[in-house]
Structure formats: C-alpha cells, structure tokens
C-alpha cells in the first residue's frame, strides 16, 4: 500500500449511514466524549473506509448518546488519512452486538473486518474541516516518525551519561 498516512485525500463514494461506530473515551479540551465513525463505500469498488466525522461530548449520563444525524453524501469526501495504531492498553473489548450504533473502546480494523466482509481498508479518514454540519474536528496529527523520537531519546541519554562522567571525574580530583 502506498505511504498515505497523514496525507490529504479526496475520496469518491457513498456513506453507509445505517452503520455508525462511536469510539469511546476521547478527550477534547478536558471534556469526555466520543468520535463518530461512519463507513464510506468507495465508488466503483467493494472497499470501505471509515470516516472520522469528529468529536461529540457525552451527555449527562453515559447511557445517553446524542442523536447521530446522517452524513450527507457529497461529490467528494476530503480528509487526512490515518492508520489506527494498537492501543498501549486495551481499555476493553469490542462488543459488536445489538443496534448498529456501536460503542467501541478503540479502532481495531481486524475486529471490524467481519462486519464488512473483509473489505474494510486499514485506514481512517479524518474528515476535513471544510465539510459543514459535523462535529468538532480539531485534528492534530503527529507528523514525526517514531525513529526521530528514538533519536532524541538517545541524544538526551548520551548527554545525561556525559554529564554524569564529567561530574564523577571532577569530583574525584584531589583539592590541594
């Protein structure tokens, strides 16, 4: 697959408004809520991509879910491609039963594949802010690859070791 993560895409297709997922435990400016994912059936194919339509705050009770208005089908759906990563801690398992407004703890493409006959693509499209009538979309993609973080960590550990060596050498000298 092409290297499309964090790239802007324009996809043609139709929303499947009968099937929505809510990714629970999402924070925005200190408030708890969820992200609304709606499948997009790509034009001239059987493949499906999940579109993250944005963040919604929880109501007073966790039992109440705000009504999810249907996504409006337009000529093109623009957004940023993102590959969901495996969570460091699994806060719960997917409960894919009952109505089609499913509350999920995290995006797990492999678990969701069964619901789409194996046609779900391994990417999520963060809906562009230009699309009107949706939820909070304050996307802050991380543009830095993990290798760069490791390089910074190595650099700072090297500085710490160097400082420790200098400290030991300078403190072992005898004062006259």
Average pLDDT score: 82
User: How many distinct beta strands?
Assistant: 8
What's the helix-strand series?
A: EEEEEEEHEH
**Number of domains in the coordinates?**
2
Uncertain runs: none
Brief characterization of the structure:
By secondary structure, the chain is of the alpha+beta class. Helices cover 18% and strands 32% of the residues.
Tags for this model:
single chain; 176 residues; alpha+beta; eight-stranded mixed beta sheet; 2 helices
Break the fold down into its secondary structure elements and pairings.
Elements: E1 8-11, E2 13-15, E3 20-28, E4 31-42, E5 48-57, E6 77-82, E7 101-104, H1 109-112, E8 120-127, H2 146-172
Can you characterise this structure?
There is one protein chain. This protein is 18% helix and 32% strand. With 176 residues, the protein is α+β, with helices and mostly antiparallel strands. It folds into two domains: 8-143, no CATH class; 144-176. Strand 4 (31-42) and strand 5 form a beta hairpin. The longest helix has 27 residues, at 146-172. The mean pLDDT is 82.
């Amino acid at each position: 697959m092409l290297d499309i993560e964090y790239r802007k895409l324009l996809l043609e297709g139709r929303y499947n408004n009968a099937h929505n997922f809510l990714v629970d435990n999402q924070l925005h400016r200190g408030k708890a809520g969820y992200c609304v994912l709606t499948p997009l059936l790509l034009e001239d194919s059987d493949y499906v991509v999940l579109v993250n339509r944005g963040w919604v705050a929880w109501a007073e009770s966790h039992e109440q879910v705000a009504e999810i208005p249907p996504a409006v089908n337009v000529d093109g759906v623009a957004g940023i491609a993102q590959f969901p990563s495996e969570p460091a801690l699994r806060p719960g398992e997917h409960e894919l039963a009952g109505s089609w407004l499913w509350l999920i703890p995290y995006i797990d493409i492999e678990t969701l594949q069964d619901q789409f006959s194996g046609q779900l693509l391994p990417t999520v499209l963060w809906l562009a802010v230009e699309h009107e009538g949706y939820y909070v979309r304050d996307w802050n993609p991380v543009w830095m690859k993990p290798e760069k973080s490791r390089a910074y960590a190595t650099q700072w550990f090297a500085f710490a070791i160097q400082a420790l060596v200098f400290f030991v050498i300078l403190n072992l000298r005898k004062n006259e």
